[in-house]
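Reading a protein record of the kind used here takes little practice once its layout is understood. The reader may check this reading against the record printed directly beneath this paragraph.
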Amino acid sequence: MLKLRHLFLLLTFMTTAATAQTVIDLDKGGSVRSKTLKDYDREAHIQAAKADSVRYADCLKRAFSALHCDSLSEAKNHFKEALQLRPTAEGNYIIEQHLGEIAEVEGLLNEAEAHYTQALKINPELHHVRSARAVVAVQLHHFEEARTDCNTLLSLSLKKEERIRLLFVRATALMGMRLNKEARSDLEELCFLAPKNENIPVMLALSLHDEGRSQEAIERLNAHLRINPENVEALALRAAIYSSQGLLDLALLDYNEALRLNPENADLYIERAACLEKLGKRASAEKDRLTARKLRR
């Protein structure tokens, strides 16, 4: 509500035109002269700007009303019309932010990133927008951009929850860049900040496996699964590592347990099918592939 009020205050701040039929010429010592065609032309531009401002404010009113009703497409159209009316308005960063959020919900991640970037060009202090852009960048595999945004934000004084979120994003970006040692530094901090989070040990093990330290990764997963035996992601990762090492029987045991816990996971059926194929169990492998296809329909 405060953002919306601030935006409308910005919208209504307009330069007003003189209504008298004479002009005080400030460049010539304040002398009074008759109006010229140039003065009327200037007034026409001012009146047009005022009209655009009214339409701009109306577009925003309609856009926010549509957002309130979850009509994202309608809100998007009104926001874009507002930008066309006043492309240099001071409050446009709020419009760009909302367009980015709408695009993100619609799964248009490149579009979302572009809108967040434009919002930050107008107002670089929008930390929540920078955070949102980092998340989108990771999903687009724009890992360097995500890391840069996270570095900027993590240098600030943050609440614990936001620091945890950004460390996760940066660790993911670093792993995407194959900077596993740096990623583990963030993950070790996350172990301290969020000790109950079951994803952190899995990411740590994955970073070790990616470096070729598969035995250490297995040991990490073993320790974690002794305490959290129903962590499907940990079971699936251990199965994948076992499979890569040729320990197919152990891999199959983990795939079986993971699918018992999560029987609707199509990816797990595909992975187990590959394991079964290597074991020479082609009929069972084909059955898993068929199940996966049905689940993905």
